[in-house]
Structure formats: structure tokens, C-alpha cells
Amino acid sequence: MHMPSITANYLAILALIYAALALQVIRLRRSKGAAFNDGGDAGLRSAIRAHGNFMEYVPIITLMVALLEMSGASPVRVHVLMGLLVLSRLLHPLGMYATPGSLRFLICRGGGIALSLGLLITSALTILSRLPWASFADEISDQAIATIEFLQVIHVILTL
Q: What angle do CA 120, 102, 14 make, to 5 degrees?
């Protein structure tokens, strides 16, 4: 097992994007005089959701990709997964600031979310596929057979 250096480099880029989103929320809160919530401002609401959405998806996807990298996934696969995560996290805020229903809104926001969900599912399924399911299933079936045989012996003893 090794340090997930590819994932770590992408995570540094994602941290800068996250800082930019946080600074945008702070700037808008100050300019709108909204210390809490969104103060009824649609732009601030979009900034808060872009920031929150980033925080909802990036940690779990990054953690799964880091685990894949540490377990020996190819560097190309790690670059593709993390590169798509960066792309999705750049697209989503662009869509959040677009007019709802516009082409930019649909492509950027929808594309960002579709990429994020795709990465979430792909990473999870890849991790699950790497688990030793066959040996686990063999162990459970051996235990089940032993339990049935034990219950048969008890049945014979009790019916004597």
C-alpha cells in the first residue's frame, strides 16, 4: 500500500476551488448584509448551495478514489476519476449562477451533478468489486452447512 499521491494532488486543486466557493459566500453575505441564511437573495442562495454541494460530494468521492489508488488502481484510472471530479466541481457552480432553465444551467449544473453521481457510483462499485466476495461466500456456506449438521445431530439426540 502506498501514499495516494495522485489523489492528494487533485485534492489540493479541489481545496482551492472550495476556498473560492467559500470566499464567494462570504463576499455575498457581507454585500447583502445576511449574516445567516441567504437573506432572501437568489444569488447568495446559489452561492451557498454551490458551496454546500461541493462539500456533499467531494469528500466521499475523494476518499474512495484514494482507497482505490492505495489498493493498486492504475494511475490512469485515478487521473481520470479525479480529473472528472475536478471538472464536475467546476461545472456545477457555473450552472448554479446561470438562469434556471437556460442551456448553461442545464449543461453545467446538470452535467456537474451527473458527473458527480457517476463518479460516486463508479467508485463505490469498483471498491465493492475488489472485495473478496468469493471467499466470504464460501465461509458463510461452510458455516451454514456446519450449523445444519449440528442441528440434525441435536434433533437425533432429542428424538431418541
A: 35
Instruction: Name the burial class of residue 45, with classes exposed (0-12), middle (13-18) and buried (19+) by CB atoms within 10 angstroms of its CB.
Output: middle
d(C-alpha 80, C-alpha 67), whole Å:
15
Query: Are 11 and 5 a contacting pair, CB within 8 Å?
Result: no
Q: How confident is the model at residue 18 (pLDDT cuts 50, 70, 90)?
A: very high
Q: How far apart are CA 77 and CA 69, in angstroms?
A: 9
- Residue that has been written with the C-alpha cell 449440528 in this structure: 150
For 111, the grid coordinates are 452535467
Q: What is the DSSP string of 104-121?
A: HIIIIIIHHHHHHHHHHH
Which of the four pLDDT bands, split at 50, 70 and 90, describes residue 99?
confident
Give the confidence band of 1 by pLDDT, cuts at 50, 70, 90: low
Asked whether 52 and 18 are in contact (CB, 8 A), the reply is no
Cell 478514489 found at: 65
Which set of grid coordinates corresponds to residue 114?
451527473
